[in-house]
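Supplementary Methods, section 5.1.

A reviewer requested that the exact input to the structure prediction be made available. We therefore reproduce it here, unchanged from the version used in the analyses.
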Amino acid sequence: MRSQHVFIYDSVPGGTGYLKDLTRNEHTFMRVLEKARDALTGCACVKDPTLDGCYQCIKTYRFRFVHNQISWSTALRQIEIILANREAIEERSPDDALINPLLESELERRFIESLRQTDGFHLNPEVVDGRPGYLLKIGNAAWKVIPQVELGPKQGIALASRPDFILKPLRPSKGLPIAVFLDGFAYHADTALDNNRIASDLAKRNAIRMSGGYLVWSLTWADLKGQLPPTATMLAANSANIAPLLKTLAHELAHIPLFNQPDWNSWQLFLAHLSHMAKSDEPEPIRQWQAAASIVACNSVTRTHTGEAELQSALERLLLGKSPAPETIATPTFAASTSDNGIFRLLAAVPVASLQMKCFDAALSALWFDDAGDKPPAEFQQEWQELLRMNNFLQFTPRFISLTRHMVEKGLVSNSIAWLMEGESDSNVPESDSELTDKQREELEMLDPLLQPVLVPLLRSGSIPWPEIGYEATDEQGRCGTSMIEVAWPLQKIGIALPANDTKDFEKDGWTIVPLENLDAAAIEALFNPQA
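The structure derived from this sequence is encoded token-by-token as follows.
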């Protein structure tokens, strides 16, 4: 059910005190509305069909510049609706009487309810990280759902922001935390209301992605209501004829219905991503998303073989909103692809050496959008909706940035181009101690001291896959049981148990459980390399 709100404010600086009188009891404000209705219906302008109000009833001189937004018929209709529903009206607390936070709150509730109603998703209220939140379980995987998290320099993020939610997987193998932003067009993109924040929004979301610690998802009312995009989009064009590549490089995604149709929305993509990450048998399922996004980004009819300097020049032209097609050279180091449909410009590239090995780990893409907003609101809103959808998908390219005209004008580009060209690998498997991430070092420190002498050298050398630390058994509905083991490799169904661990549920499910007293480096290696 949709809630509607009436906001009453006193425009006189310091206030007149009338609002307190109006809300002293439930009848006073209604009597004022009745008098307002009588004044409207009794005005002489009612007899003139060419008028929609006049200075005697609803218009005032100081609002003469917005008279096109003031309507006698609209005012009368709204007053009559309120009076007809007076018995159902409730007074809200002052904290709720701010327009934007209230609308965001409604959208946040819709997001939570939509998660709860999704088949196979189990969402329960929990205290997470010391605040009210939720625990989302999908199969054997779980995510903390944490509202209103401040992100910034402490998290290695250059620009501060506050996502509406963070979805944080309990197990690192299930992907990065997801920063979810719930956006309304009126507050985030409507130029007519002087609320075009697209450049600022995307700059902050670029910064979150560039930190390497998060995915970013932008959702709107239209997404949660199931509204689908037009079929003739850049994503649809670039998704044509990719099925053979998906079957080779992202075989699990090739079987997801969403990847066989061009008109999915951002909410459907969000659910598909969470479901796949929860259920995948791959040790690093995120790599399939990286491959799929890179394939789509590079699948343009305009392709060029170019060099590093030429690619950087093309990115700098794209930054200025110019045609990004790179120059062709005789000894190329990159295979580049450009798409331009008059609304969006996309430049993607993969090192030639990587492409020859059908590897997209070093792929990059940059999307440009003209956010001037000098179009009819309905048309611009549809373009903005598509912009968010493209960002949600193309972010899986190993390196992706989103650019706009105003972003350049406002100096919000930062070091985006340099970051794109760095081309560092995001592999989660360390080859040596120096390549361990901060998170991996932290997990090694969390290991029980009795396990560290054996496991730490194996993990630092990359001799065995990276495990899950502190693993709980779950049933088919995602509910946690009583069994838990200290270290687990769920894909291989191998675990290490301390004497205090209850392992019966794992043993029933066919796991190989190594007790502490049998812990030996050679035996552990042999479990993963039986032919060695």
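DSSP finds 21 helices and 15 strands in the chain. These observations are discussed further in the main text.
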